[in-house]
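Q: Structure tokens for this one, please.
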Amino acid sequence: MNGYGMESRRKTNGLFSGLPTQPGMRRIGFWMSPKKLKKMDMAKFAVVCRTGGFELVQVDFARPLEEQGPFDVFLHKMTDLIVKAEQDDAGDSAEVGLFRVFESYMNANPQTIIIDPIENLKKLLLRHRQYHLIATSDACLHDKVFTPPFVRLIASDSSQMLRELRLAGVDFPVVCKAQEAHGSSDAHRMMIIFNADGLKSIKVPCVAQTFVNHDAVLYKVFVIGEKFHIVRRPSFENFYSFDLPPIAFDSQNITGSQWLEDIPVSRPPIAASSVPDVPAVALDPEIVTSIVKGVRKQFGLSLIGIDLIVDKTTGHYAIIDVNAFPSYDGVTDFFPHLLSHIEMIVWQRDRHLSANHHSVHLKQPTGLKPTARIISNDLNPAIARS
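A: Here is the predicted structure, written as tokens:
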């Protein structure tokens, strides 16, 4: 089915662990694209789940979901599939078919917890909408937090582009990104434009955002429910000249960035190959916690990655992207933290059902508090909290 069919037939009854079912175990169904599955060791997660009293089931959309359920939780990374389904007006593609199967099952089983809700994920898919929601979120109420000015460019005329940039307060250099944040091979392909002449290289429609000098350090804030983990990644060097040709790059591999033109002038380096052992700026954990809470509240999502940079000039925190169900590369014990989050929301659901006179067994998770916490931080171990 266009690469979207799962291979659960090789597993006993669809159980990822291949072990016999134990009575009374909670069940977590999951679906991910083959690309995502290559990055996630779900066999390891199955062991973690089983230790915690949960059964992990890989869903196969080629088979009736009712035969594979019931599920207490449905964990997924369906953003690419959602985009394809949204773009198919005729509604006859394989992606739309899979999506309709999923919607039908969830409508018939409203007590199944979806991580994360489809309607909330849609808020992330178009960058101009995402950035507007970030800018109007509680995260940006803090006087040291902002999202850089941005504008959606539609016209292919560079003069019109320049007028739209000026009206929106977007200054050079600008980062031009595809308007779709997911579901396209262009989603991670971007350009840095330094002047009006460089606008001729832009492919529209796109979103243009002011580039902020940030000492070549990007902070990836990986959120898992009420907890988060911060990882530093190398990023673009500071730029001080506007007399430069455009830079083309893939946001997932900035070390492969390239100048679009060869001109006989001295140019600054494009990107750092590594981050310093000691960061120039130590992130304030209270500000990052405030950002996480504000972004989560605005989007209603629990598994997200927030890209942060620190403005070299002001020291303010710029939120430049929010991603659904990121890689969690560098997050220690991601699977146990993920299961802790699932335990909490299942307990909250069961408590709600019990309060409404439904017969349900309440098993309160241990060691969990509904407050944002840093689970680890590679910046300053002294501020890490368990």
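A few notes: The two ends are 43 Å apart (CA to CA). Residues 334-355 form the longest helix (22 residues).
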